[in-house]
Amino acid sequence: MNAVLKLVDVDFGARELSRPLNLIDAIKDYSDEMPLYCFAPSELQATYRRFAEFFPGQVTYAVKANPEPQIIETLLNEGMAAFDVASLNEIALVRGFSKTAELHYNNPIRSRRENDAAFHQHEVRSFSVDCIGELRKLKEAVADQAHLVEASIRFHLDLGVAGYDFGTKFGATPEEAIALVAEAEALGFRVSLTFHPGSQCRQANAYRQYIEMASQISKAAGCELSTLNVGGGFPVQFPEDKVEDLKVYMDEIVSAVDDAFPEQRPDLVCEPGRAMVANSVALVTKVKAIKGDGRLYLNDGVYGGFQESHIIKMLPRYEVFSKSGERKAAEDLEFTVFGPTCDSLDQLPGKLSFPNDLQEEDIIVFYDMGAYGSSTTTNFNGYSSKKYIQVSNFC
User: Fold this and answer.
1) CA angle 214, 208, 150 (to 5 degrees)
2) Which residue, 7, 63, 284, 302, could crosslink 36 as a Cys pair with Cβ 3.0–4.6 Å?
3) What is the DSSP string of 58-89?
4) pLDDT digits 0-9 by tens, 310-361
5) Are 17 and 60 members of one domain?
6) Reduced to 3 states, what is the DSSP secondary structure of residue 372?
7) Coil, helix or strand for 38?
8) CA nearest 298: which of 233, 222, 385?
């Protein structure tokens, strides 16, 4: 092999090889028994630029979607100046690359130690809260420095438009949010509002409904918002789930803010995770076995890169290659696909169509696997991989 790439293993160690690979080169060199993540920085750069072009505010990245260090570094190099973080580990990860990046601690539930460490050690100045107890815990941590801190009040509406909703876990009702805004202001915080319509939100109009409610909450509380965080939830394209283009969502947000805040428009923030990173990573898997009754076994499954497939009931687009890197496009046959573990629940949703000349050790590449794949993988039965290589493109 004579190509330059950075190979990053589960311990985030790195070693330099000779030149950038493309996906086909990576397939030809793929001899491991474990699945392989191929990261294309060019795809991530293009996605970030689209967000920066269409969104009239601060674009942040929800680190939980994929905390792979190369992704953080790529976004910083592109000019991203703020990140949505959900734990002290995520904070430490970003701080390892930037001491000055703005961090929004948007996990609404935190221990006192987490609040204290975030504020005093890592200089976090924006915290999401969704109940009075968490607001008062935050006040304990910042004491008389509340004026330096943004308390971002998270509220929820029951709209049912997402792949899965966070409202059962997070978010105040509008009535509760009004009281929280007033209390946060009384405690001396800078006050903002935030919401999240849910992962893989299928209707751009959901953002309008949330923005209209944000305006009503701020008016009822008698508080002029300095910032409104419209969350994440922007969808990616799955073959079985047709969604509108990103610009449709952004245009809806801009129009809704103009209508809801005609006199004093708040500064806007968004925090894409899935939509930012999904299409920059492809997952290379290998066929372990094929049974004559239509059952097929891969070296990855729902305890690995496909952890959320049983939740959203969808899979991204995929292609089949021989181990020599040649695309296979023969007549299709349907298979029930299982992962490598001994658990019978380790099964991908639905049936997948593969060429009728499919054989063991053929390669199946699943695209758009950058979000919630390697970040949620387990080590069940000893099957696990977070191995990344960097590729120039997916051609």
Assistant:
1) 35
2) 284
3) EE-EEGGG---HHHHHHHHHHT--EEEE-SHH
4) 888 889 999 999 999 999 988 899 999 999 999 999 999 999 999 999 999 9
5) no
6) coil
7) strand
8) 385
Assess whether 182 and 298 both reside in one domain: no
| Integer Cα distance of 63 and 93 in angstroms | 9
- Short-list 108, 145, 126, 129, CA closest to 179: 129
Structure tokens at 361: 């050790």
Per the structure block, which two tokens stand in for 54? 């269409």
Residue-level pLDDT at 330: 84
DSSP string, 250-304: HHHHHHHHHHH-SSSPPEEEE--SHHHHGGGEEEEEEEEEE-TTSEEEES--TTT
What token pair was written down for 96? 């390892």
Domain range for 197? 41-277
Nearest to 100 by CA among 123, 77, 127: 123
CA distance 282 to 286: 13
* Alpha helices, DSSP H, located in the chain: 23-29, 41-54, 69-78, 88-95, 112-116, 132-142, 174-186, 205-221, 246-260, 274-277, 309-312
DSSP 48: H
Q: What is the dihedral of CA 323, 324, 326, 327, to 10 degrees?
A: 10
- Do 208 and 251 belong together in one domain? yes
Q: What are residue 293's phi and psi, to 5 degrees? A: -90, 10
CA 339 to CA 364: how far, in whole Å?
13
Q: Do 219 and 116 sit in the same domain of this protein? A: yes
Q: What mean pLDDT is predicted for residues 273-294? A: 97
